[in-house]
Amino acid sequence: MISEADIIRIDQPELTASERMYLPQIVDGMKTTLRHLGKNLLKNTFTVQYPEQKRDLRLQNYRGVHRLNRDEQGRVACVACYMCSTACPAHCIHIEAAESPWPDREKYPAKFDIDELRCIYCGMCEEACPVDAIELTPQFDLVGRTREGMILDKEELLAVFDQTAAMKPRKNPHVTGYAGTGSRSCSCEIPISHVPPSAAGASAP
Ligand code: SF4
Ligand code: SF4
User: Fold this and answer.
1) Going by C-beta distance under 8 Å and a sequence separation of 6 or more, which residues neighbour residue 74?
2) CA distances for 188 relative to 35, 82, 164, angstroms
3) From CA 28, how far away is CA 152, in angstroms rounded?
């Protein structure tokens, strides 16, 4: 039971006539609008005229549409380890692993889908990947007419890599033992010469 001494009674404040008509709030709002207008005019900062103009984005860490990277032989760099789908908090990555056709890795993704509508663009998949096969790109203007169209499959994710590789080159892979998944400019301790010669002629899926 609450004692009477613990109860704090708050009386409803009396509003003036102008407060009942929201006049102070309207004046405050107008002051804020005029302050920003003055700042923008003085500093010459204007709204970006999207889509004719696009903002310069941070290429290295902007979290936009995903891509699946290719290795130095044009193959999908993913080794189907499921680290990204395990780390994904939105459960929007679907991978089906298959036996790799190449001798330098055990598995590769026969299927690799990402539901771009379900994704929350947190970047956990990129952080989890041991071979830097999945990355988020500065592409932010992905559109689709259907929900199914916003589920990107492996070929579409590889196509995003082809479109963005010049703008954002692939990072070097971490040292993982997957020698054939790196880039030629790899500065890690596994030399590219470790890639078995037979893998060099393999076709990209
Ligand atoms: S960015 Fe986050 S939510 Fe999106 S696929 Fe990667 S881990 Fe999942
Ligand atoms: S973490 Fe990297 S290598 Fe592993 S399944 Fe995902 S994209 Fe492929």
Assistant:
1) 204
2) 53, 23, 23
3) 47
Query: Class of the 66-178 domain?
Result: alpha beta
pLDDT in tens, 125-134: 999 998 889 9
In angstroms, what is the span from residue 122 Cα to ligand 1's centroid? 5
Angle at 71 between CA 67 and CA 72, to 5 degrees: 135
Cβ burial of 68 (10 Å; 0-12, 13-18, 19+) is: buried
Q: Which residue puts its alpha carbon closest to atom 4 of ligand 2? A: 81
Ligand of minimum distance to the alpha carbon of 91: 1
126-130-132 Cα angle (round to 5): 50
Nearest C-alpha neighbor of 83 from the set 128, 132, 131, 133: 128
**Which of 65, 83, 88 gets mutated to test ligand 1 (max ligand atoms within 8 A of its CB)?**
88
What span, in angstroms and rounded, lies between the C-alpha atoms of 123 and 134?
Answer: 10
Query: Domain residue spans in the chain?
Result: 66-178
Q: Give φ, ψ of 30 to 5 degrees.
A: -65, -35
Q: What share of the chain is helix, strand, coil (3-state, %, to 5)?
A: 30, 15, 55
pLDDT tens-digit series, residues 27-60:
999 999 999 999 888 887 777 888 898 888 888 8
